[in-house]
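User: Predict the structure for this protein chain, please.
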Amino acid sequence: MPSLSLQLYTVRQALERDALQTLRRVKACGFHAVETAPLPPGLSTNELARCLQGEGLSVMAIHAGLPVGGQARRIFDEAQTLGAQRVIWHGWPKDELCATTNGYRRLAELYAEANDAAKKAGLAFGIHNHWWEFEPLGNKYPYQWLHQWLPADVFWELDVYWVRTAGLDPARVLGELGSRVRMLHMKDGPAEHGSPMVAAGAGTLNFEAIVSAQAGPADWVVELDECATDPFEAARASRCYLERLASLSSSEREHAGRRNAIAR
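Assistant: Here is the predicted structure, written as structure tokens:
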């Protein structure tokens, strides 16, 4: 069973109002781990760490700015305070370097620099995608350039929803990236810009195919960037669906995937 956590960006508004009560609700939804996002104003890393510890929630990874230059030490200190072993560049907003192949080459150099710094701090470094890494650029897709240029130990936290929104098949991309994918953002919805997301299993993504395409162990993270319903309930329903999916045998997943593909 993959480790399963909730990206706290899902409940960011509640977190800003009352961190302790929010984390209690996260725990009540059945989660034992979280992935953090940049914190809301007024919530310190130390306070969040105390609240998490009090509720028995561990931190699978932190989403943070790119740990290069003067901000690297602050980001690594935040990870260590929260007990996280992984730092993930959240990738937002779209960098102006994403406009050209040479720009992506420069980004790959920056990611390699961040990776070296993270390793010296005893941490792993990964990158999280949006849709623009999966839109054509020249004769390749940007994610393919990055896969070619990045050091092997820089991992992907693949956001399958944004891959699908860009028009590509997340299962095929997983097959390409192989063991470099060590975390998955498991989101669902219509895969249309501007439309709210829904609980995993209630939208358009074929999670059976996605899970079957994993080349190796990868932790799963539930996230809903925008949600038209109660985000806690959608997160709970996502957890239940993904836990059921993880319990299926490969043949059961294949059968369910074919059935759901026809239904979609």
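Strands lie at 4-7, 33-36, 58-64, 86-89, 124-128, 155-159, 181-186, 219-222.
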